[in-house]
Design brief:
- By secondary structure, this protein is an all-alpha fold.
- The protein has a single domain, classed as Growth Hormone, Chain: A (Up-down Bundle).
- Helix content is 80%, strand content 0%.
- It is built from 17 helices and no strands.
- The longest helix has 32 residues.
- It is a multi-pass membrane protein.
- InterPro entries: MFS_trans_sf, TM_effector.
- Keywords: Cell membrane, Membrane, Transmembrane, Transmembrane helix, Transport.
- Its main location: membrane.
C-alpha cells in the first residue's frame, strides 16, 4: 500500500475513516447551506458572522470539559452519543427550513446547540486515533483524518450549491441539504458500532478528580513547543478560518454571483486543503518548522486572495490558501498527538481545539462586520496581515524562551524514534 494511505491497512481505522468521510461530506453540505440560509433570511454579513460565532463558541467554552470527558470515559462511547447529539439539531433546523417557518433566531439557537455536540465530541475524536493504530502509523492516520475532513470540504460545498440551485436557491432548498447532513451522522455511528474492540488499544482511563483541567493546562505550559503551536493555531483560527463569511461575501457582493458559484469556491478551497493533508500523510514525523513556514505562507496567500480582480483569479488562489492552512493544521495536530503523554492526550487535544476552533467565534462577528462595512477585500487583506504578524511574534517569543531554533526543537525526539527509544512525556527544550 502507498505510504500515503498505509494506516488504512488497519481494519478498525479503515471502517472508522469511511464513516467519518460520509459524515464530513454531510457536515460541509450543512455549513454551506446554513450560510446560504442566513443570507436568504437577512442578506447580512454580520448575521453570518454571528451564526458562525455561535456555532463555534461552545468549542471555546466547553472544550476543556470535552477533554476531561475523553480522558475519563471510554472515547468510543462518547463519540457514539455525540453523533446523536449533533444529528438532532441539524434535523430540526432542516425541517424548519423545509416547512418555511424558519427564522433567524432558530438558526442562531440551533447553531449553538449543534456546536455543543461538536465541542464535546471533538477532543474524543482527536484522541481516539492513537487507540486504533500503532505509533508508527499515527502521524499518517492523523493526516488522513485531515484529508477526510477536507475531502468533505471538497465535495460538500459543491454538492450543496448544486442541490440548493436545483431546488430554487431559496430557503426550502437549504433545508433539504441540512436534513441530509442529519442523516449522515448515522454512517459515523454505524462505523463506530462496527469497530472490533479487541483490536483497539485504549489509553488507561483517568479516574475522576478535581483539577483535571488545570493539570492539562500546567502540562502544556511546561512545553514551550506546545505553547508555540497553540499560539500559531490561535492566529490561524482567529484571522484565517472565516472562509464561510469571506467567500460568501466575495461571491455575492464583489462578483455578483449566486449559490452555485459560492459552493464552487468552497470546493476549490478544499482542493488545496486535501493536497496539503495528503502531503502531510507522506511524512513519517511532523516538524515544527512546517507549522511556522506554512503559517507564514498562509498569511501571504490570504492577502493575495483579497487583491484578486476577478472571480476566476480569486478561485485560482484559494487552493494555495487551503494548502497552507491544512499543512499547518495537520502538522500541528500530529505534533500534539505524537508528543503528548497518553494520559494527557484528551486534555491537550481539547486545548488545541479550544484555541484553534474556539478563536473563530471571537473574530467572526468582527470579520463579518469589517467585510460588510469596509468590503470583503479589506477583510481578507487585514486578516492575512494580522495572522502573519501574530505567528512571527510567537516565533520570536519561542526563540527567546528556549534559545534554540524550531529545527533544533524536535531533534532529540526524532533521534529517539529513529533508534526505537521511548519518548519522554515531559520532553521540553529549555
Amino acid at each position: 500500500m502507498s505510504p500515503t494511505f498505509r494506516s488504512l491497512a488497519v481494519r478498525n481505522y479503515r471502517v472508522y475513516a469511511v464513516g467519518s468521510l460520509v459524515s464530513n461530506v454531510g457536515t460541509w453540505m450543512m455549513l454551506t447551506a446554513q450560510a446560504w440560509l442566513v443570507l436568504e433570511l437577512t442578506g447580512s454579513g454580520t448575521a453570518l458572522g454571528i451564526t458562525l460565532a455561535l456555532q463555534l463558541l461552545p468549542t471555546l467554552l466547553l472544550s476543556p470539559m470535552g477533554g476531561v470527558l475523553a480522558d475519563q470515559v471510554d472515547k468510543r462511547t462518547v463519540l457514539r452519543v455525540m453523533q446523536v447529539a449533533m444529528a438532532v439539531p441539524a434535523g430540526v433546523l432542516g425541517v424548519l427550513a423545509v416547512t418555511g417557518v424558519v427564522e433567524l433566531w432558530h438558526v442562531y439557537t440551533l447553531a449553538f446547540v449543534f456546536g455543543i455536540g461538536r465541542a464535546l465530541e471533538a477532543p474524543a475524536r482527536q484522541s481516539f486515533v492513537p487507540e486504533m493504530v500503532d505509533d508508527v502509523d499515527l502521524s499518517n492516520a492523523v493526516a488522513l483524518n485531515s484529508a477526510s475532513f477536507n475531502a468533505g470540504r471538497l465535495l460538500g460545498p459543491g454538492v450543496a450549491g448544486l442541490l440548493i440551485a436545483a431546488l430554487g436557491s431559496g430557503v426550502t432548498g437549504t433545508g433539504w441539504v441540512i436534513c441530509l447532513n442529519a442523516l449522515s451522522y448515522g454512517a459515523a455511528y454505524a462505523a463506530l458500532q462496527m469497530l472490533d474492540p479487541v483490536r483497539l488499544h485504549p489509553a488507561a482511563v483517568v479516574g475522576p478528580r478535581r483539577g483535571a483541567v488545570l493539570e492539562g493546562v500546567r502540562y502544556v505550559r511546561s512545553r514551550p513547543d506546545l505553547v508555540l503551536v497553540l499560539w500559531c493555531v490561535f492566529f490561524l483560527g482567529g484571522f484565517g478560518m472565516n472562509f464561510q463569511i469571506t467567500s460568501a461575501l466575495m461571491a455575492t457582493e464583489v462578483f455578483g454571483l449566486g449559490a452555485q458559484e459560492y459552493g464552487v469556491l468552497g470546493s476549490v478551497l478544499a482542493v488545496g486543503s486535501l493536497a496539503g493533508a495528503l502531503l502531510a500523510a507522506r511524512r513519517a514525523v511532523p516538524r515544527l518548522r512546517f507549522v511556522l513556514g506554512a503559517g507564514l505562507a498562509f498569511a501571504v496567500v490570504q492577502v493575495a486572495s483579497g487583491l484578486m480582480p476577478t472571480y476566476l483569479t480569486y478561485a485560482a488562489v484559494l487552493p494555495l490558501v487551503g494548502l497552507t492552512v491544512i499543512t499547518m493544521a495537520s502538522t500541528a495536530n500530529a505534533l500534539i498527538q505524537m508528543t503528548s503523554a497518553p494520559a494527557m492526550r484528551g486534555r491537550v487535544a481539547a486545548l488545541y481545539l479550544m484555541v484553534f476552533i474556539g478563536s473563530v467565534p471571537a473574530s467572526a462577528p468582527l470579520v463579518g462586520l469589517a467585510a460588510e462595512q469596509l468590503g470583503p477585500r479589506v477583510a481578507l487583506v487585514a486578516t492575512g496581515l494580522l495572522a502573519g504578524t501574530g505567528i512571527a511574534v510567537a516565533t520570536g517569543w519561542f526563540l527567546h524562551r528556549t534559545g534554540q531554533g524550531p529545527r533544533a526543537l524536535t531533534e532529540e525526539w526524532h533521534a529517539r524514534r529513529r533508534h526505537g527509544a521511548a519518548v519522554p512525556a515531559d520532553l521540553e527544550v529549555v
